[in-house]
Amino acid sequence: MDSQNVAAEHGEEISSAGRTALVTGAGSGMGRAIALALSAEGWNVVVADLNIDAANSTVSAARASQGRAHAVQVDVRSRQSVHEMVEQTVATFGSLELGVNFAGITGAGTLVADTTEEHVRAIVDVNLLGVWHSMAEEVSAMLKAGNKGLIINAASAMALRAAPRSAAYAMAKAAIVHASRSTAVEYASNGIRVIAVAPGPVNTPMYQANTLEVQRKIAAGVPLGRPAESEEIARAVVWLASSEAAYMTGTVFTLDGGDSA
Ligand SMILES: NC(=O)c1ccc[n+]([C@@H]2O[C@H](COP(=O)([O-])OP(=O)(O)OC[C@H]3O[C@@H](n4cnc5c(N)ncnc54)[C@H](O)[C@@H]3O)[C@@H](O)[C@H]2O)c1
Q: Is residue 1 pLDDT above 70, yes or no?
């Protein structure tokens, strides 16, 4: 029996037809690539970002390829804003089957003793609480509708290995891994699955904000010798959202060129 039939037999299939994905951070980098890849696969896509112009640009690109996409402005630091984003998603497309929580900020910083409380709070507010709020509101909407669903959260290879000058960022990403695993266990019996994705360096605007010298150093530290392209992460997310991956939950999907090996 092929994987689609196995998943269908167990009622676990997530078909893209008429299904809705909500992608945060979809105005840029991986979130944008994921939104466009899901749209190309036939998903209805809500493109959510703090930067509404960037979100609108992703929506235009999706619609130019006959996709069904809708932009929503969200500040993932605010539970109320995230609640409204999920409400708008259901109001626009009628349901929510996939939450992809990729809004985030960079964490390159200082040694622990030199790191300000403001820096730590800023990282935790967006990268950890932002994912927490999104995941919690997405689960609530899925439960309310009686829907099975999948949530994919952006962790990082930095959650799995240590490096200097990034403790606050790595701490938030490691916490996302555990929050994802805990949530997966809590809601598995409701048919809601949760996966944390752990990319290594990815060639996005966040990565390009580093000087070229720093980018070269980062790339040299990756066993495959280069950062991933956003589209490589997006293809993996499309696969995770397919019936091929229907048995996967409560786990970390690492895609890092060997960075955390
Ligand atoms: N680029 C990398 O090397 C890398 C590696 C591993 C993990 N990650 C993680 O992947 C995710 C996406 O990273 P990226 O490189 O695509 O970043 P990016 O900077 O290209 O895109 C991030 C998007 O998040 C949005 N955003 C920021 N704060 C927000 C807020 N408060 N509310 C809503 N939206 C907000 C930004 O406007 C932006 O459009 C992040 O969680 C990041 O930590 C990145």
A: no
Predicted pLDDT at 104: 98
Q: Which residue's alpha carbon is at the smallest distance from atom 14 of ligand 1?
A: 29
Strands across the sheet with 44-49, in order?
68-73, 44-49, 20-24, 98-101, 149-154, 192-199, 251-255
Atom of ligand 1 nearest to the CA of 127: 41
Amino acid (one-letter) located at 85? M
Instruction: Please name each of the domains of the chain with its CATH number.
Output: 3-255 (3.40.50.720)
Q: Is the beta carbon of 208 within 6 A of some atom in ligand 1?
A: no
The closest of 192, 241, 203 to 40, measured between CA atoms, is 241
Ligand 1 near 234 CB (within 6 A): no
User: Cα separation of 256 and 260, whole Å?
Assistant: 7
Per-residue pLDDT reduced to its tens digit, 209-254: 999 999 999 999 999 999 999 999 999 999 999 999 999 999 999 9
> Residues near 142 by Cβ (< 8 Å), separated by ≥ 6?
96, 97, 148, 149, 190, 192
Q: How many angstroms is it from 5 CA to the middle of ligand 1?
A: 35
Residue range 133-188, pLDDT digits in tens: 999 999 999 999 998 999 999 999 999 999 999 999 999 999 999 999 999 999 99
Is the pTM higher than 0.90? The answer reads yes
The residues annotated with a catalytic role in the active site are 169
Using alpha carbons, list the distances in angstroms from residue 123 to 100, 109, 194. 19, 10, 22
* Residue 162 exposed, middle or buried by CB count within 10 Å (0-12, 13-18, 19+): exposed
Q: Phi, psi at residue 256, to the nearest 5°?
A: -140, 20
Structure tokens at 261: 């090996």
